[in-house]
Amino acid sequence: MSIFIVLIGVAMFAYVMGNFADRITGMHNLMGVGNERELKLQSWIELLKLFSKGRIADGSLIPDITKHFDYYWENDRNKTISKDDEYMVVLPNHLKYKVMAFLWGDIFTHFWYFFSYVKPFSQKFFEFYYEVSFLLMPRR
To answer: Which of 19, 20, 22, 91 meets the CB 3.0–4.6 Å disulfide criterion with 95?
Structure first.
């Protein structure tokens, strides 16, 4: 009986740890590794240099591009969700709006006139806020 209980315990522990590792890997892939992002950015800059015959290396363009992406990666509020995310798809519209209001409420409040052309809390209102939220990106 003890051997059976130990085997079941080991199997359950392995299952739980496997799921946990999958979640961590998924979040890791979703968030992106800083070094991986930086390597991709550096290879992109190298391509720019190659096709511009070295002219891009002059001036402050490369540091400005690097600063922009550093800021973008630090302040991207939509990096954890997407329109096609399985959890977002099944949410009712009023909850989708609440998620987007949580992430982008300051923008919706400061630019209320832009967002007020739709009748508040109507179906189109929720759809509009949801669609627009994925287009908002951090800019310096």
So the answer is: 91
